[in-house]
Amino acid sequence: MEFAELIKTPRVDGVVLRRPFMPTVEGTLCLTGHHLILSSRQDNTEELWLLHANIDSTEKRFVGSLGTIIVKCKDLRVIQLDIPGMEECLNIASSIEALSTLDSVSLMYPFFYRPLFEVIEDGWQSFVPEESFKDLESMTDEWRLSEVNKDFSVCPSYPSLLTVPRDIDDESLCKAASFRHGGRFPVLSYYHKKNGMVIMRAAQPLTGTNGRRCKEDEKLINATLCAGKRGYIIDTRTIAVAQQAKARGGGFEQEANYPQWRRIHKAIERSNVLQDSLIKLVEACNDQSHSMDRWLSKLEASNWQSNVKEILTTACLAAQCIDREGASVLVHGTEGTDSTLQVTSLAQIILDPACRTIRGFEVLIEREWLQAGHPFQQRCAQSAYSNGKLRSEAPVFLLFLDCVWQILRQFPCSFQFNENLLIMLFEHAYASQFGTFLGNCVAERGKLQLSQKTVSLWSWVNRPQELERFLNPLYEPNNLVIWPSVAPQSLLLWEGVFLRWNRSTKCLDEAYQEMVHIIEYNKELQNKVNSLRRQLAQLETEDSPLQTP
């Protein structure tokens, strides 16, 4: 297919670009196979270069012969294009819709992008499992790298190399894989060098209604326990949802079959609920009513902050089991590719200071998200503005980044990177010139030959001149475990993502933050008053009279 076939009108003069709280720009609109470009001859006017892949939806309006296209983007910005001529407007709108909804991954911009910068470090080769395993080998000899999934036949969504207990052979791994959803058998996620405890991740066991069991699966996760130690299984679903899964062939670990493990259920929402939450949040952030009560009500109704709190709470629980209880942890939900990865990666940020450096955070994204099989292509196909019927879209990765931002804000000196790195990752997960976030798993990326045909995001990020933009000037290495607060007054709206394109709502955000601080101050004041009351009550009930000199 030729892109020219989809472009009905490649160029229109006299187009006016309107963006909230920015000066209007008049210029020439051009459509290419991958970009919408608006260029003006005015001095000091920045050109607009918008990837078609970044467009979530469009709306058309007409007043006489003047047409208007409202373009809503996956990075949450909204722009307006006033186009002279009804036919030109219809043609442009039709072309944008066709070019922004291409089905073939190989037609996307990363396959056509040629970098203008010199690639000093090949990001595709920067994070390989063998290197991470060398670090693990220096601390313990209880684990090995298995090639059981070298052809992706055991588990299509896992990478070819997996870290597993040394005493478990590949035949046992295959049997354990047949007992787990999608073949995602328990594998090592994190080793805590302080006490040797580990975090493992998997998908739900296929126990079904008849209580099926698998001796190899039981042996596999028991191999991670030290003598006399117990472990915790953190199921990211409520007990009700987990019970419902049994009727569909899924389920959870029966305590009788896993006597050394205690199961804990949490309530992280499923993907379709999260997508609805994002849509409601963005709608609230774009509300122009300027009514504080209305805005706060819509913000609360979105449940976005509640989702952030639940994910962070579960991650803190996993970290607490490891560091304070001295117990290993297995984390899973249903498929093991969404909430599971949120919890395991956030727990590592809490526990491991290396994950708070730029390089360490990149390794974490690679290992716990890209190589672990988070389906980026499906989850990030649409954002908050799409009019299309939702399929598998969900802001799972965005929620993770929001949680990281909450921890960064509470511990501003403990992170080598700043908020800019998190925002950049959000943007590139949804639309990018780089191939890093294309595909849903390692196997798919191999078939697409991304490492040969596209440039890695890390090749660009790790250039010294780019790294400077992401460095936190307050950073001081902190080797301690950090424990974020999940109290409502400690979790704030991420203005850098949700309010950056709409300045008119920033005043609402400032008022909201001020209100939160007032509430927090009032609670502290109330606690002091209650403490004084208890002291007075204690004095009044003392039997002995006051002694006078």
Automatic annotation (TrEMBL):
Keyword flag Cell membrane: yes
Organism name: Sinocyclocheilus grahami (Dianchi golden-line fish)
InterPro entries from the UniProt entry: Myotubularin (IPR030564), Myotubularin-like_Pase_dom (IPR010569), PH-GRAM_MTMR6-9 (IPR048994), PH-like_dom_sf (IPR011993), Prot-tyrosine_phosphatase-like (IPR029021)
Membrane topology reported for the UniProt record: Peripheral membrane protein
Domain Myotubularin phosphatase: 123-498
One GO cellular component term noted in the UniProt record for this chain: perinuclear region of cytoplasm
Subcellular location as annotated: Cell projection, Ruffle membrane; Cytoplasm, Perinuclear region; Endoplasmic reticulum
One GO term of the biological process aspect: phosphatidylinositol dephosphorylation
UniProt protein name: Myotubularin-related protein 9
Name of the gene encoding the protein in the UniProt record: mtmr9
